[in-house]
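User: Sequence recovery, please. Input:
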């Protein structure tokens, strides 16, 4: 076998238990996943996470930053967030002003919503929150607020609902209001909105209009991208530089970008925006791997997960010689390593992710079931989409796409996307704008009367979907190891304090030392048949105790 093929084969193989052990032990040093260990489960389930300490009901079992994450492009209109940690930035005024200016309704001449109707809407939210102690403010179900709905329509145009799959795998629940409608879904028929006066929008944007109570929800100031692009903003210089060093310097289309071909990069990004946002996240995996491979002995745990210090480094991430980047051997301080060996080392964190070839992993739309020709055509079209995206990415990376050819092969690229497809990957962050209007709603009647002349027209202009959550695609090293159970002992759930893109798992009940930590990828209140049908999308038949019992009664 040629070396190139051998490297591709190594990149797509499931890591040995020893490699897995080494990686997750190194990850422990970061403090992420304290009280958890990763090991093989057996029964064909692959690896899973196990408690190494007792967790009580409601305890956070895991709080973990993403390894890579990208906000959906369409969502950038609705939520201005740090492109590294995904906190909302700027101010409540800026968030509202942006939504109004970028998403301003046309004057429709329709009657305005009555104040009562607006209040009722907010009350419904408060009502559902009050029923759950843990849920305070808009922390309620942030993981799940209508994200399936929103991303299902907003994500890509390929129409096979890959984001729906992502949400399901994340164990995300879609919150329903009393009428069975999704909270905070982007309501495109929301044409009862009354446009805000342009001068109000301008004043919100330039900071001259201060909203009552907004100082109670301060947001970090906007920090620009180091490369000068308008795509990414940050909450701090630290986040800006971590993102820059981790991947963005090769994916930035700004004037100080280090991308090989920014024009080609724009082509790649336009293609992702028009087809599937997963490609943006996949590009981060590729860029991060190239940047790590350029160094001699990249640390096994990427610096940004380890608080700025790479862990498990052999050579502490020194820059490789430029000769190495062009295809020769690097020799620095006695280290001799070929580009392809460097690539394999750099790939290590991503090799841990559960993968499948994208077009094989995607669930076939139900209407194609039992129609093999249509299904084959459907899968071929996904393969074509994947190939189209890869060609553009290769062009954007120029010579390095040759140096690290296995990384730019369809075999590897399709599995990177398959990894996003099959893991726990929805990125959802609650909007502080929702908290803001809830705080207004909780004022006394007297206080409310004073502020409503300012806040009511804004709510009328924003309409029913007055706040929008940040949504995107992410990959989490540990959360992605959580296996499914129809009676899970943990759930993905964002509390009020969880204001960034970290994954959060909470214990559903006491979890004993040695127990596997499981979440539900699907709506576990469904019937046995429906659960099995939904799980078929993930390529396995659930044999949890509940399913075994239900199968006997069915
Ligand atoms: C997000 S990954 C979970 C971690 C995975 N076990 C690993 O080794 O990385 C999802 C995949 O794990 C496997 N899996 C998860 N829960 C399972 C279950 N209850 N029974 C069988 N396989 C399961 C399936 O192959 C599924 O596609």
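Assistant: Recovered sequence (554 residues):
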């Amino acid at each position: 076998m040629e070396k190139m093929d051998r490297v591709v084969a190594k990149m797509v193989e499931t890591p040995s238990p020893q490699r897995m052990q080494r990686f997750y032990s190194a990850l422990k040093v970061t403090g992420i996943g304290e009280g958890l260990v990763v090991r093989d489960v057996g029964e064909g389930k692959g690896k899973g996470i196990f408690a190494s300490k007792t967790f009580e009901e409601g305890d956070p079992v895991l709080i973990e930053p993403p390894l890579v994450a990208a906000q959906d492009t369409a969502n950038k209109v609705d939520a201005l967030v740090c492109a590294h940690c995904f906190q909302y930035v700027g101010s409540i005024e800026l968030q509202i002003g942006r939504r109004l200016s970028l998403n301003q309704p046309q004057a429709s001449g329709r009657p305005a919503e009555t104040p009562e109707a607006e209040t009722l809407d907010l009350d419904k939210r408060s009502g559902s929150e009050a029923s759950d102690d843990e849920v305070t403010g808009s922390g309620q179900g942030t993981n799940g607020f209508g994200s399936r709905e929103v991303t299902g329509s907003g994500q890509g145009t390929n129409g096979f609902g890959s984001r729906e799959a992502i949400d399901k795998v994340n164990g995300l629940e879609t919150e329903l209001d009393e009428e069975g409608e999704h909270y905070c879904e982007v309501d495109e028929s929301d044409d009862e909105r009354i446009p805000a006066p342009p001068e109000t929008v301008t004043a919100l944007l330039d900071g001259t209009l201060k909203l009552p109570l907004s100082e109670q929800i301060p947001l970090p100031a906007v920090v620009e991208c180091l490369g000068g692009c308008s795509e990414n903003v940050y909450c701090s210089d630290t986040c800006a530089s971590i993102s820059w060093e981790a991947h963005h310097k090769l994916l930035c289309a700004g004037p100080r970008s280090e991308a090989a071909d920014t024009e080609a990069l724009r082509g790649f990004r336009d293609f992702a925006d028009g087809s599937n946002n997963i490609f943006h996240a996949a590009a981060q995996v590729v860029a991060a791997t190239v940047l790590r491979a350029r160094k001699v002995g990249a640390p096994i745990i990427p610096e940004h997960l380890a608080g700025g210090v790479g862990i498990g480094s052999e050579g502490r991430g020194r820059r490789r010689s430029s000769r190495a980047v062009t295809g020769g051997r690097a020799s620095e301080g006695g280290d001799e390593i070929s580009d392809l060996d460097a690539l394999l080392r750099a790939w290590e964190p991503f090799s841990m992710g559960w993968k499948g070839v994208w077009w094989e992993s995607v669930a076939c739309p139900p209407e194609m079931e039992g129609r093999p020709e249509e299904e084959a055509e459907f899968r071929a079209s996904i393969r074509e989409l994947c190939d189209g995206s890869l060609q553009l990415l290769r062009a954007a990376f120029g010579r390095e796409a040759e140096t690290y050819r296995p990384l730019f092969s369809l075999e590897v690229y399709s599995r990177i996307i398959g990894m996003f497809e099959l893991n726990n990957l929805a990125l959802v962050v609650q909007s502080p704008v929702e908290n803001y209007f809830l705080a207004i709603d909780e004022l006394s009647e007297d206080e409310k009367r004073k502020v409503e002349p300012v806040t009511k027209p804004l709510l009328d202009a924003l309409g029913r979907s007055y706040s929008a959550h940040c949504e995107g695609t992410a990959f989490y090293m540990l959360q992605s190891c959580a296996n499914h159970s129809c009676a899970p002992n943990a759930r993905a759930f964002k509390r009020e304090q969880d204001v960034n893109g970290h994954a959060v798992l909470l214990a559903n009940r006491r979890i004993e030392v040695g127990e596997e930590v499981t979440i539900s990828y699907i709506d576990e209140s469904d019937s046995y048949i429906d659960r099995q049908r939904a799980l078929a999308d993930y390529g396995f038949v659930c044999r949890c105790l509940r399913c075994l019992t239900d199968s006997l009664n069915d």
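Confidence is low (pLDDT under 50) at residues 106-188, 314-334.
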